[in-house]
Amino acid sequence: MKTKFIFVTGGVLSSLGKGLAAASLGALLQARGLSVTIQKLDPYMNVDPGTMNPFQHGEVFVTDDGAETDLDLGHYERYLNVPMTRKNNTTSGAIYNHVIAKERRGDYLGATVQVIPHITDEIKRVVLSLAEGDNAADVAIIEIGGTVGDIEGLPFLEAIRQLRSELGRDNCLSIHLTLVPYLRSAGEHKTKPTQHSVKELLSIGIQPDIILCRCEQSISEELRRKIALFCNVDHDAVFSSVDVSNIYEVPLKLYAEGFDQKVAIMLRLPARNALLENWEKLVHTCATPEKKITIAIVGKYVNLKEAYKSLHEALVHGGIANRVEVDLRYVNSEMIDESNAAENFCGCHGILVPGGFGYRGVEGKITAIRYARENHVPFFGICLGMQCAVIEFARHMANFADSNSEEFDPASQHKVIYLMKEWFDLRTNHLEKRDGGSNKGGTMRLGAYPCKILPETRAFAAYGESLVEERHRHRYEFNNAFKEALAEKGMVFSGVSPDDALVEIVEIPEHPWFLGCQFHPEFKSRPMKAHPLFREFIAAARRHAENP
Ligand code: GLN
Questions:
Q1: 37 alpha carbon to ligand 1 midpoint, in Å?
Q2: Across 120-129, 314-323, 338-347, 441-450, least confident range
Q3: Same domain for 271 and 299
Q4: I need a labelling partner for 448 at 20 to 30 A (CA). Which of 253, 360, 430, 467 fits?
Q5: Which domain holds residue 453?
Q6: Domain count, the chain
Q7: DSSP states of 451-492 as a string?
Q8: What is the mean pLDDT of residues 491-501?
Q9: CATH no. for residue 315?
Q10: Could you report the per-residue pLDDT of 264-320, keeping only the tens digit for each?
Q11: Which listed residue (118, 317, 520, 531) is catalytic?
Q12: What's the 241 CA to ligand 1 centre distance in angstroms?
């Protein structure tokens, strides 16, 4: 097996940025000429995060192959620029589900099914699957969700403990990310939480090889030696990961510490220095914008920025491509009405309505869209945002006053957005065939689908291609019965499925930039290559700022 494994665990507390650290290490190893993949193991019991409320979990990141995954996979894709698949994320729920299904089939032949070895074996199988096939990556980074000491995380830690002994020292490396807080009153960094966390890991049988300390400022040589001594690691295997204002600086900061060098030496990886010019250029561009613009994001989850992670990043990427700093103003859609729209959007150079589920806040979104359309403010609607744009247009331009989505008003006479029966049946049949009828719940259109782009449209001006692939996560679709009526009033259907059955992009050519798409382009945006629609939206916002 050529693949080497790096296990990343977290200690002390959550939200230390384990995902970013793993993604940044991946980027550094890639810059050394290695192929890299990353997998996230989530200890919760949901089979996937698709059923979790965004307030609980943050964004659900959708892969090309239609998996609903943890938002860290978004970081992995953005830093590595390789598409993730359902193989790159699993949960305790999925592991147990698999083992219990096998037990029901009688596969364990009368044995008592236990956490060790059955659950741990299944975890090891999932991890090792990354090393299969001719195209297996040189390095697989495995990030274990949660914090060491959590009850749920134990089977995962036990599985990696076993893997370390089975695969051997040269093929496995364990990195522990901890917090080294700075106590202002004492005027010093504190190492005790790190020592305790490593002790906890040791009690499970895992000796970390490298300790990565999250801290406000770089820690002293003396402190590094102290941590190394008390945690049994090489004196040059303690690194600091300091707070940064721009997350794309993390790979450069870790490189400056010699982090990837140490990883490469310990894993005996080919010794080529990392080539990081593109990262340096990126950080320089971020630091030297020509202008600042403000984009309003009108949504329901505005108090939890994690819910719009990829969206946030895609807007930043659009800013990088246009040499502007993008200031995001999160506006709670439940607070918007006709009387306060102008006040709320004063000073905004673009308005974006993102995806979402449920009726709460929808009328505010529709009001925001009307404001953008009538006042020529660049508008970008994504998924539910596109659906709301269609509803707004049908209500106020085509005079279908009760127009709505079937999701919100099944009794409406003008359901411009509806559950497309043919598609719904097709999908349900497919799932029944695939999962033997056990999965009737999965009725969403998920994952990558092709989309034809019509020439001479804003969509075509952005993509410059007539066929693209974009990722979906929704149930409802545009209702073709209203296509003609809306087209007559000036709406253009610039993106459709190859068989013309599904509307994927709508736009209003009369407007400076008004576009809605049924898919989620934010998932495919990269820091070094902004998604074309985000690039063009921000370009329009910049024009609006310069020439209101
Ligand atoms: N609720 C809408 C649907 O299911 C939109 C979903 C979304 O924005 N992701 O079609």
A1: 30
A2: 441-450
A3: no
A4: 360
A5: 289-546
A6: 2
A7: EEE-SSSHHHHHH-SSEEEEEEEES-EE-GGGHHHHHHTT-E
A8: 95
A9: 3.40.50.880
A10: 999 999 878 989 999 999 999 999 999 999 999 999 876 777 888 999 999 999 999
A11: 520
A12: 38
**DSSP character string of 328-391:** EEEEEGGG--TTTHHHHTTT-SEEEE----SSTTHHHHHHHHHHHHHTT--EEEETHHHHHHHH
pLDDT of residue 416: 97
Q: Which of 158, 407, 522, 536 is catalytic?
A: 522
Q: Is 26 in the same domain as 174?
A: yes
C-alpha of residue 80 to centroid of ligand 1, in Å: 28
- The question of whether 392 is a catalytic residue gets the answer no
Among the candidates 282, 307, 328, a domain finishes at 282
Q: What is the mean pLDDT of residues 200-229?
A: 94
Taking the CA of residue 444 as reference, the ligand 1 atom at the shortest distance is: 4
pLDDT in tens, 387-436: 999 999 999 999 999 999 999 999 999 999 998 877 666 666 655 555 55
Atom of ligand 1 nearest to the CA of 407: 1
Q: In what order do the strands lie in the sheet with 404-405?
A: 404-405, 415-418, 477-478
Q: Are residues 304 and 277 in the same domain?
A: no
Q: Look at the pTM and tell me if it is higher than 0.85.
A: yes
Asked if residue 270 and residue 352 are part of one domain, the reply reads: no
59 belongs to the catalytic site: no
Supply the pLDDT for residue 470. Answer: 97
Task: State whether 231 and 320 are in the same domain.
Answer: no
How many angstroms separate the alpha carbon of residue 415 from the centre of ligand 1? 15
Closest residue to atom 5 of ligand 1, CA basis = 384
DSSP symbol at 111: P
Tell me the average pLDDT of the chain. 93
Across 245-249, 375-379, 419-423, 491-495, least confident range: 419-423
Tell me the C-alpha distance between 46 and 91, whole Å: 7
Chosen domain end from 282, 302, 322: 282
Helix (H) or strand (E) holding 267: none
Q: Which of 323, 327, 300, 324 shows the shortest CA–CA distance to 312? A: 327
